[in-house]
Model the fold of this input.
Amino acid sequence: MNAEQLDGFIEVLATTEVEFTNLGETIGDLITIDGVSFGQVDDFKLLYETAISSKMIN
Done:
């Protein structure tokens, strides 16, 4: 989501009792949390998309 959407999202969360933490952000195709790079979005996308099927095989 863009910065404008993020501001609105945070405003909505602030009106609820839901606790939240902004861990980091994705910029382009990289995932960075607290200034530490965790790799490319596509790497995590593949893990996400195959997580259930890989558990069923094992």
